[in-house]
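Incident log, support desk, overnight shift.

02:14 A customer reports that sequence design results differ from what the structure should imply. Their input is reproduced verbatim below. On-call engineer (initials T.W.) acknowledged and began investigating.
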């Protein structure tokens, strides 16, 4: 694999990029990492349903290239893409399978590595199309419009608020679902300026569906 060329950036940004690269390096050193290091070759693996089920494929190699090229506006964007690797793996593979369990372990390892890394800019230019640290302008308006349309649907009701697993009598929910998400939370975070790119919003919305089908 050709090594990605690192972007030139300010010392503050460079420090955060190095911390994120360090977290990736630890992940890729793990014996569990190889299946997650490159795009899933679904043709070679003979899993034709993969591109139908996984709408936003992601792998650690692609994350590293995007990080070095300054495609992430903030560490939150970077974290969202790494977590998308685990979310996809656990959505496509059954619980208890080798890949599912490996994704669980690597997710925990990644969280430990990022626990001391503050949210901040990863690119002086704003990261691949975002106008700054938070999403704004036409992109923000479009995301809000799409969310409004989704939330109007009758079938959206179960996804509008956090799953009340106690009331529903499903005590294993927090054990199985490591990153709960709902459309109301996405909307609230969007209004609060939590997101720095459309990609990050899409990842959280996809997480709502992935959790429901896990």
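02:41 Re-run completed on a clean worker. Output:
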């Amino acid at each position: 694999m050709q090594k990605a060329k690192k972007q030139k950036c300010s010392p503050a940004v460079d420090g955060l990029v190095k911390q994120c690269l360090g977290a990736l390096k630890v992940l890729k050193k793990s014996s569990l990492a190889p299946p997650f290091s490159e795009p899933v070759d679904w043709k070679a693996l003979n899993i034709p349903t993969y591109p139908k089920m996984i709408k936003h494929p992601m792998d650690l190699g692609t994350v590293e290239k995007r990080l070095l090229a300054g495609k992430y506006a903030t560490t939150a964007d970077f974290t969202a893409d790494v977590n998308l690797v685990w979310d996809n793996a656990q959505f496509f593979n059954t619980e208890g399978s080798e890949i599912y369990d490996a994704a669980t372990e690597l997710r925990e390892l990644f969280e430990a590595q990022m626990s001391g890394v503050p949210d901040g800019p990863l690119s002086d230019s704003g990261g691949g199309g975002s106008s700054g640290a938070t999403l704004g302008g036409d992109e923000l308006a479009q995301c809000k419009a799409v969310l409004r349309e989704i939330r109007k649907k009758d079938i959206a009701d179960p996804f509008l608020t956090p799953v009340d697993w106690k009331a529903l009598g499903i005590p294993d929910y927090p054990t199985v679902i490591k990153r709960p998400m709902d459309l109301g939370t996405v909307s609230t975070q969007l209004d609060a300026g939590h997101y720095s790119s459309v990609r990050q919003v899409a990842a959280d919305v996809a997480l709502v569906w992935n959790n429901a089908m896990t």
